[in-house]
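re: ur question from the group chat, yeah i did fold both. here u go
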Amino acid sequence: MPGKPAPIKKAPAKKAAAKAPEPAAKAPEPAPEPEPAPVEAPPAEAAPAEAAPAEAVPAEAPAEAAPAPEGEAAPAAPAEDTPAAEGSAPAAPAEAEEPPKAPTPPPPAVPTSAPLDVGVEDVNDSSLTIKWTTPETIGDSGLNGYTVEYHKDGTSDWVVAQELTSANRCCIKNLTAGDLLHVRVVAVNAGGRSEPGTLAGPVPIREVADRPRIRVPRALRSRYVKQVGAQINLVFPFIGKPKPAVSWLKDGQPLDTKRVNIRNSDKDSILFIRSAQREDSGVYEMTVKVDSFEDKASLTLQIVELPGPPASMKLVDSWGFNAALEWTPPKDSGNTEITGYTIQKADRKTGEWFTVLENYHRLTATVSDLIMGNSYCFRVFAQNQVGTSESCAVTKEVATIQKTGIVYKPPEYQERDYSEAPKFTTPLSDRAATVGYTTKLLCSVRGCPKPKIEWLKNQMVIGNDPKFRQISNQGICSLEIRKPCSFDGGVYTCRAKNAQGEATVSCKLEVKQV
């Protein structure tokens, strides 16, 4: 019984050894290298050692292809080749194909720019809240989030407070009162970490009782205008606890303490100028600061004075009783806009100046009603909100009004033709009368020349029948029928005639018996 298994184990080894040369002999056909045949020959001798799992090797051979060089997995290759030997012909072309080219790798991701406007939103004795804005440059790889880090003053190890947050604010909790904290924010994407956005300085961890705030008086919220030489004393109240630090700037630069005095107290700041000059004009900015909190207010101060005279003035033309003038604006407006001009004239005989136009806004003017035979000079002053300029511009030329014979020629008007054919504006209306009671028919007519009026009864001219009374006044035509009888009923017609034509209008009169 123990001798029978030995020949059973050798039989697969012989078959494997017999079949192993077949792929080795066929291998040189597709591949010119002769090395594959000797590589597979040695496993044939080792096959009897692992004869028992040889039947299962073909199924697991693909999974154990990697560890083949180290151990005894080499016999699996002949076991796989045994079933593949029958289909070796179609497998050979597959090995001859060129491997596909690898795709071009995408460009490496680039980190974003640093977060912007990193500042303090809130602070107390145990926490600090900071805020920031999105980086200016994000890139194609997008933004994964922000990482907030901090370290205490005197140390260099950064501690991560929050990692990959998508919000633009972060509250750092469980802090120790009295510490000075340095904070930075880093944007993270597929390209890595950006440059950090940091606070301007370390933040003390302590409770701020009242945040600083400036209460600007209503009169100082708009432009504040004063004349040259005026004294300026402006008070800006503020609140804040502990006591805020107050600073002033003029047009973004430190104040000139020789010209402007600042006096600060716990509740207000006073800006004092003893005698204001033009160079004191500008934008003054006040800042109150408590730790990392601050408030700002600005004041626009404008120091004005009288304007200079217009640059030039000339006489453009003179005709009849008129003179045309032209001038240019002053070079110095007094640090405010020009509101108008005052034009004056003077007769050369008397030399007295008279105002012709005041608060005039144009740069050209025509002076009229000059006296014939006289000569005139003209001058102009500039005006602004302070007043009228002290000097003026005078014309070099003289406007002389010549004495010339003037013949009045009245205008000729064409006589209008008012001729119009008669036209009844109010027609006759049918009426009913009672026997014995006087009645009247009325109509109105228009025409030029005045039309002649005739009355007809049943197409017969009434004429001067005393029973009828005919009246025509201002275009109103009336026919009075005195005490009509039943025979006076019928159709009455009023006819108007003139040289342009004629018109008629009719009505029906019915006389009833009581």
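okk and heres the other one u asked abt
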Amino acid sequence: MADTSGNALKRPHPEDDGSNSQKRTRSNNGSPAPGQGSAPAGKVDIERMVAEARAKAEAVRARLQAARGGATPPVPPAESSPSPAPPAPSPAMSRLEQMKARVAAATAKANAPPQRSEAPAPYQQPQSFDDEGLSKARGGLDVGLHPALLSDAAPEFRGSKSRQQSKGGRIPRGKQLDLSGPSIEEIKNNPYFDPSLDPKATVAKPRQSRQLIFNEKGKYVQQAAALRRQAQLEDMKRRIAERARQAGIDEDMEVEKSYLVQAPPAVEWWDEGLINGSDYAAIDDPANLKIDTADSTITHYIQHPILLEPPQEKNVPAQKPMYLTPKEQAKIRRQRRMADLKEQQAKIRLGLEPAPAPKVKKSNLMRVLGEQAVKDPTAVEARVNKEIADRKEQHEIMNQERKLTQDQRREKLESQQEKDAALGIHISVYRIDSLASGRNRFKVSKNAEQNKLTGICVVHPRLNLVIVEGGKHSVNAYRKLMLNRIDWTENPGPTTSDNNRESQPLWLSTEDDKGEPRDFSHNSCTLLWEGQAKTRAFRRWLGARICESDSAAKEALTRSKMENFWALAKSHKPAEF
């Protein structure tokens, strides 16, 4: 299409004679003159291209028919001799037919179902999307298909990734993995299986149904009748006790009854739920045992009690510091004073404190004052004596400032007593033959109040009982008072509180009916019992309670549940020397 000289700017004219002339003749109307003779050379190329496109379309159509029907019709070779050419179409019409052929071929191949055969097909190289047939069907000038046409195509032609998933080892959509756990047989046969790792795969326990248990007719009526009889019996005992107390009957016989050991019951309370019977003879028959039955109190569950801190640990007193010898105390004091002196000297060097005046004494008088002592010894001596007196007065003032006031001493003592009681409550019980002396009664009550002790003093014509409770230190101090400090055999005579004899009985006086002093030589105080308790039984010190009968004494102690000590005091026999 270009000339031999290499000038391709203009196509050659058909009427050109082969010369290098680049001009052609013009018509009278101003346009090139129409060609004469045979058809133009450009039309030959278009016809050949149309023929090739039709041949390829026929080949694609034959291939699709073979895939549908199974028959493989002979495909005419692409380089066969062309048939007699029809009248040459115009260039515009040939391109339109070519595009229709390409679209028809691509649509037919996309809608064709995949070929299935029972026999394994021989290996064929997978046809790429850019094969010869489809590349021509994508449009002229290598232009891709319109998106509306691609929607009708099969998924395998939409992209390389979908073709790889369908041809590769991917899982089909219709099948799913089996994600269920192991079966019951596998769990039982596997000794290493842990059911706690997968609660859904554990073996389901069968649910046991409970049977309905109906109450027998008259069960609660009998229980109510038993409760009424018990209440009537308790009421009758209370009325008998009140009548006996009003009549002043001596209850010495009850003291002996309190020491009698009661007979054991037919069945202990902890065995009542395990035996179906009224006594232990029922255990001979295994049918009467409630151990493996459904209503048994024994189960396979283990009850773990709540862990509590040992109560005795909080009662342990604090560890005292180690005592130092006099030499060690002097050494520590010397080191402390030396450190204070160095600190003071450093402050003086820095100018933080003024230098102290020299400490003048009679021993260093001449060395400190020097010439002044020689000139006027009398004035210097008077000055030294005055400084010594001032230092002594300042020392006493400092001691008085450090001393606690009366209120501070009382608060400190109370705090120490509270700390002592917080370590544990101690109880001590004393038996005194006679408390007729008002001085001794005052000592007993006043020391109990001062030591922050709670309790009671029961005054009786035959014996006297003192019960105190509090901290260990306070109880020890009170014990020394009762057993060592008070002289119980002394008769101090009538006191100011004993002048009013008409308001108190004769046995509570230090003088007999004739006005002579009573003999207290056999009077004594004995420690009956001492121990620890969890809490206090008395809220405060109740003082001396005068009780003329045993019933009144027991009633005074019953409120605090201490009546057993009265029976202990009555049964006590003093030691014989």
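fwiw on the second one: The beta strands are 425-432, 454-459, 464-470, 525-533, 541-546. Residues 329-407 form one domain. idk if thats what u expected
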